[in-house]
Amino acid sequence: MNRSARILKILIIVIVGGIALSAIVMSLWNWLLPQLIPGIHQINYLQALGLFVLCRILFGGLRGGGRGWRMRGRWEQMSDEERRKFKDGMRAFHGGGRRGRGCGNTNQPGTESGV
Fold first, then answer.
1. CA 13, CA 64: separation in Å to the nearest integer?
2. Which phi and psi (to 5°) does residue 39 adopt?
3. pLDDT per residue of the chain (115 residues) written in tens, 0 to 9
4. Between the CA of residue 43 and those of 6, 26, 38, 58, what are the distances in Å?
5. Are 25 and 31 spatial neighbours (Cβ–Cβ below 8 Å)?
6. How far apart are CA 11 and CA 17, in angstroms?
7. Distance of alpha carbon 104 from alpha carbon 115, whole angstroms
8. This prediction's pTM
9. For residue 96, how many other CB atoms are within 10 A of its CB?
10. Which one in 35, 54, 95, 99 has a CA-CA gap of 20 to 30 Å to 9?
11. Residues near 91 by beta carbon (within 8 Å), at least 6 away in sequence
């Protein structure tokens, strides 16, 4: 798949997702809020889209996972030794990788192979 087709596919997915999420926001607003809070009126689709975008900006940021972008800056400032220690700590925290979580890790003494 060439690059332009991939970008077009992602763009279509984002647009369809935005339409679907805006419809969900509108449905939930119109179903819940007018009954719960007197004086609140139903909203139309464009108002729901605006509300969704506003909430995304205020609470979610414009990018997907903001944590990863902050970590990238920290990662770039680490020395090779600090990176190695960080990776070792993450491996220990997550149980030594996929095979270290009790899934038949044959590298540890006392485990049976083929489990």
1. 14
2. 95, -10
3. 688 899 999 999 999 998 998 999 999 999 999 999 989 999 999 999 899 888 888 887 655 555 556 777 888 888 999 989 988 988 888 876 555 444 444 455 555 555 4
4. 35, 7, 14, 20
5. no
6. 10
7. 5
8. 0.49
9. 13
10. 54
11. 97, 100
Give the alpha-carbon dihedral of 79, 82, 87, 88, to 10 degrees.
Answer: 140
Cα separations in angstroms, 29 against 34, 37, 40: 8, 11, 10
For the chain, the C-alpha Rg in angstroms (whole number) is: 24
Tokens of 26: 């509108």
What type of residue sits at position 62? Answer: L
